[in-house]
Amino acid sequence: MPELPEVETMVRGIRDCVVGGKITAVTLPKCSRKPISIIPDLKNIQKRVIGTTIDSVDRRAKRVKLTLSSGDLFVIEPRMTGLMLLADAPTQDHLRFQWTLALKNESHDLWFWDRRGLGTIRLYSAKEYAEQLGPKRLGPDALEMTSKLWITQLQKTSRPLKVAMLDQKLVAGIGNLYASEILYRAKLSPQKPANQLSTAECIRLSKSTLFILKKAIQYEGSTLSDGTYRNALNRDGSYQNEHRVYMKQETLCSRCRSSEIQRIVQAQRSTFFCPNCQPE
Question: Which neighbouring-strand residues pair with 160?
Fold first, then answer.
């Protein structure tokens, strides 16, 4: 489930405790679950990173990026249930990867935890990173999207607007949950062809995107009923209390108070919207 706000919260949560830290060990905790994808293998990772320093912690779309003093980069993709943690994990048997760091004469641990085992860890060289996750592979970050950039990107496709918003080559970082919330606030139909949005509608979309994502980051993301998402200190986010349409099908719209929120399926993903506030 982690999307841009949750990943940004992970990055902010671990940054102060790992930047400047010297990697003294990387290990695979004992785990009886299906292994996650880790490339290259552990021995090669150890040869390349032990003794290096974590220079920065950033986000690339829905991925956590650790840049090392050697120029190599760890890229962690949480996908459905992955978490970056500094404190106790929700469960011990889903810990997948551990970094041990020396920082200010103290030892610190950073873990990647993943219940469903869909997350990935990659160690890239700078060249590999540019090839795999550069502008040719991923679109502009959602927090950097202006109304003019939305116009440019949406003109590239006639797919339904909600489907286009999930295309990471068009705009990077928006996932299913926040796409529904963004479109509801912007009063835009998720079914409207993306290349038919007017300039005024793109302005609304731009403003709504920034408002929803920044507010969700402020609330440290959304922890849903399954309790999977936790911040770096193993605490719930709270933006789920601000949701207006996501998972609220058959409840009365809180804005117009005249229509019920509906659920449809687009590109095999659930979409939630108010037919009165977001007419097609």
Answer: 193
2 catalytic per annotation: yes
Q: Is residue 279 part of a domain?
A: no
Task: Name the catalytic one among 15, 215, 269, 275.
Answer: 269
**Is-contact 239 220, C-beta < 8 A?**
yes
Q: Which two tokens stand for residue 71?
A: 């120029």
- Sequence-separated (6 or more) residues with CB below 8 Å from residue 30: none
Cis peptide before 135 (omega within 30 of 0): no
Q: Please pick, among 6, 59, 60, 62, the residue that the annotation labels catalytic.
A: 62
Is 47 in the active site?
A: no
Q: How many domains does the chain have?
A: 2
Give pLDDT tens digits for 31-69.
889 899 999 999 999 999 999 999 999 999 999 999 999
Q: Which two tokens stand for residue 251?
A: 């409840």
| Domain presence at residue 184 | yes
Letter string b/e over residues 92-111, b meaning 16 or more CB atoms within 10 A of that residue's CB: eebbbbbbbbebeeeebebb
Do residue 51 and residue 173 come from a single domain? no
| Alpha carbon separation from 84 to 7, 20, 64, 95, 121 (Å, rounded) | 9, 17, 9, 10, 11
pLDDT in tens, 170-184: 999 999 999 999 999
**From 3, 8, 181, 201, active-site residue:** 3
Q: 103, 133, 163 — which closes off a domain?
A: 133
Residue 232: per-residue pLDDT: 85
- The enclosing H or E element of 83 equals strand 82-85
Residue 62 is a catalytic residue? yes
Distances in Å between the Cα of 80 and the Cα atoms of 62, 77, 120, 123, 219 are: 11, 9, 11, 20, 20
Nearest to 197 by CA among 147, 130, 123, 270: 147
